[in-house]
Amino acid sequence: MVDTMQAAVLEEFGQPYILKQIPRPPQPKDHDILIKVLVASYCHTDAIFASGAMSKDLPCVGCHEFAGEIVAVGGKVSKSLEMSPGIRVGVPGRAYNPCSTCFECTNPDKDPMGYSPFCPHAGNLGLTRDGGFQEYCLVDSRQVTKIPDGFPTNQVAPLMCAGLTVWAALHHERLRHAKKVAILGAGGGLGHLGVQFAAHLGLSVLAIDANDKSLAFLRKVKQELESAGDNVQVADVRKDDVASMRAMMRETGDKPMNELGLDAAIILPESQAAFDTGIKLLKNHSTMVIVSFPKNGFHFSAHDLVFRDITLVGSLVGRNYQLSEMLLFCQKFKVSADVKTFPLSQINRLVEEYHKGVSGKLVVDMKL
Ligand SMILES: [Zn+2]
Ligand SMILES: [Zn+2]
């Protein structure tokens, strides 16, 4: 008899998850490890995937940001990774079983040779393979990170995609010398983590949003940052125009107002209005980091790129060394996601809440 387990399976695009018993994954082989899922959080990409816009194969168990406890370890798992049963790991969905031979895998920056989250041939948990909305999951030992002792597990899941994405955006090489950074869509899942990261990194942060709920949430985030909150200015783009937002970021000794601008803007929303605001806030020779992917793309003006020398860069995922650096940083500075938990049986209620525009991150806690 095959062992079964509970899972939330997307069987049709545009339909709710189906909660059902499916076969438990087999024993892990090669670089794989089998984990018992502890927490699994819902990401915007899950909503896009469920809508059918990414046209991957179904059925699929959703979720690409989760955490669990190791149950069994495959034969080729490197000893240096120190993966053994009982250890907790955080799992980002990207780069399951990369090819190890492509350009990305053989030029892995500071990650181990043969492994890259940018490998175009790798699988993606929760998208091309089953992800975290199930009791057990097969994951790649090279894609995960060990969770530091004492770190709360339900805080880990939202950091694996939302956290890492905005962490990597803030650490883009073009931002190495940036001091003043705007985060557009700052009151969302990625944004509220980005504001905390940026403030603790010592950046001056302009946290921008456009609705009362998100702005109230941002003010709470600023307050909870205590002294680091002094680095954060919250702006309501419905009331504050570009000139006043630039003025908020003015520091003693800054050059005349008309020359001022920010060093970088991180665009999290999919709206053209956010893009346009972001680019106007920037000073010449600075950088827009685009993290969102609107269906019809963004329109940019050649004037901004040519005459003002604005650089547009995209940022998607972070590397594995960044994943562990981020967790240690979160532990040190007590960066935390605003988390609302649900049992797996309530996954479709979680999705409904998501579409209502709830602040923070919605997370399945398998213990509930
Ligand atoms: Zn995601
Ligand atoms: Zn590869």
TrEMBL record:
Gene3D superfamilies found in the cross-reference section: Medium-chain alcohol dehydrogenases, catalytic domain, NAD(P)-binding Rossmann-like Domain
List cofactor names only.
Zn(2+)
Swiss-Prot/TrEMBL keywords? Metal-binding, Oxidoreductase, Zinc
Domain Enoyl reductase (ER) residue range list: 14-364
GO molecular-function terms, A-Z: alcohol dehydrogenase (NAD+) activity; metal ion binding
Which cellular component appears as one GO term in the record?
cytoplasm
Belongs to which family? Answer: Belongs to the zinc-containing alcohol dehydrogenase family.
Q: What is this protein called?
A: Enoyl reductase (ER) domain-containing protein
